[in-house]
Amino acid sequence: MAQPTEGRAPAYIDTTKASIARVYDYALGGKDNYEVDRETIERVRQVAPEVNMLAIDNRAFLIRAARFIATQTSITQYLDCGSGLPTAENTHQVVQRLQPEARVAYVDNDPTVIAHGQALLEDNEFTRFSAADIREPETVLADPTVQGFLDLDQPLALFQIGTIHHFDDAVDPQAIMARYIERLAPGSVVAIAHFFDPENADSELARRMEQVFVHSPMGSGRFRTHAEISGLFPGLELVDPGIVPCYRWWPDGPQLRTEDPVQRCIVGGVGIKR
Ligand code: SAM
Question: Which of ligand 1's atoms lies nearest the C-alpha of 193?
Fold first, then answer.
């Protein structure tokens, strides 16, 4: 059945091509998505009935990592790469509740996010949005919106949450992260959530989801191993408990539902640059 968004798409939005941000929105239960976006999740659902948990656990990790940084470090500036569409509890809302003057710069290159999300994300003087390709650290960091707003000589929190697994195979994600980290001041932290191949009995599920994602209208979604994901934090000291399934990273309380194997196929971690 068509959702309310259908039929009133603005001209600048191509509703024939899936968008990572809108696929994610659908998986989170949002309404800013089209048939072509929903198709990706519905295809993956054939091999992983609880596929939505990838998005739900990823988002919950973002919120907990943001709260952790806001309360356990003295960092007051955030560079959120791949903001996604505005949803409940965006990074700036989470951290500014704890640190009212914390500055948050969002970066995304999805036309729907740029057109529709920018105004909603930039809802106060301590929040900015920049349209850039996050696979290009030098461009992101040199962007006037970012440079004029964040002090790159001071520690900051860099988020790559649910983003790197969507990079195309032509780029080397470890090299990209090394270039970001090189530019960060000591004391900075990096939070990453990434699709995961557990290299155990759940690997088959991870491989199947990857196959469907990569051949879906969205066309991306790499499940990487622990060693590959560790390589995204070069030179950083990982905060306990290290790189673990997102729902096990400083959970708010006991697991209220039975764990699904899908939940073991997305991990998160936070690293500190000493
Ligand atoms: N970080 C948010 C979260 O975890 O809730 C959103 C995650 S969403 C799955 C991934 C976002 O990264 C999308 O909005 C997508 O447009 C953005 N993205 C992916 N590749 C990108 C690129 N090369 N440059 C800029 N943004 C990108």
Answer: 4
Tell me how long the chain is.
Answer: 274
- To the nearest whole number, what is the mean pLDDT of the chain? 94
27 CA to middle of ligand 1, Å?
14
Report the distance separating Cα 135 and Cα 159, nearest Å. 13
User: Mean of the pLDDT values across residues 189-193?
Assistant: 98
Distance 163 CA to ligand 1 centre (A): 5
pLDDT for position 6 = 52
CATH of domain 52-272: 3.40.50.150
Q: Whose CA is nearest to atom 16 of ligand 1?
A: 110
Cα(106)–Cα(66) distance, integer angstroms: 14
Ligand 1 centroid from CA 162, angstroms: 7
Three-class DSSP category at 14: coil
| Contact between residue 265 and residue 196 where contact means Cβ atoms under 8 Å apart | yes
CA-nearest of 54, 78, 55, 84 to 65 is 78
Report the b/e string of 133-167 with b at 16+ CB within 10 A. Answer: ebbebeebbebebbeebbebeebbbbbbbbbbbbb
DSSP 89: S
pLDDT at 42 over 90: yes
Q: Which of 134, 31, 48 minimizes the C-alpha distance to 86?
A: 31
